[in-house]
Write a structure and sequence with these properties.
Length: 128
């Protein structure tokens, strides 16, 4: 992820130096905004088991899922860019609209997280 950020910064800098277009600074600014968003997501991603639901925060994105909606948790692996920042992940099925996307997390202490989530969601099924 950091390599991607460094690459974008280098491309934006080279674009400003070697191209003489009216939009070169706007394009460089957009590249820097993308880098800032990636860094914001990387350093501000966390999950919290609150009184009424699971609270998710990843950069500017926030969501709370009521415990009653959480049905299953699948242990998965992958590298796609979502709220999970690790290779080993938990995919939460909250009976949500499938067009909304997956809820995928990577808590640091996975076993403790699952134990507490199971306590709060008595009918929870953990798979994988």
């Amino acid at each position: 992820m950091y390599g991607l950020c460094i690459g974008i910064i280098i491309v934006a800098g080279l674009y400003c130096v070697y191209f003489e277009t009216a939009l070169k600074y706007l394009i460089a600014l957009m590249c820097l905004i993308v880098v800032a968003l990636v860094i914001w997501v990387r350093w501000n991603t966390w999950y919290e088991l609150r009184e009424d639901g699971l609270y998710l925060c990843s950069g500017p994105f926030h969501e709370e899922i009521p415990y009653a909606d959480i049905k299953t948790v699948d242990k998965t692996r992958g590298l796609d860019f979502i709220m999970a920042l690790d290779y080993d992940r938990l995919q939460i099925n909250a009976g949500l609209n499938p067009e909304r996307g997956k809820i995928v997390l990577s808590p640091e202490r996975e076993d403790e997280f699952l134990a507490e989530l199971s306590r709060r969601c008595p009918e929870l099924e953990i798979r994988g």
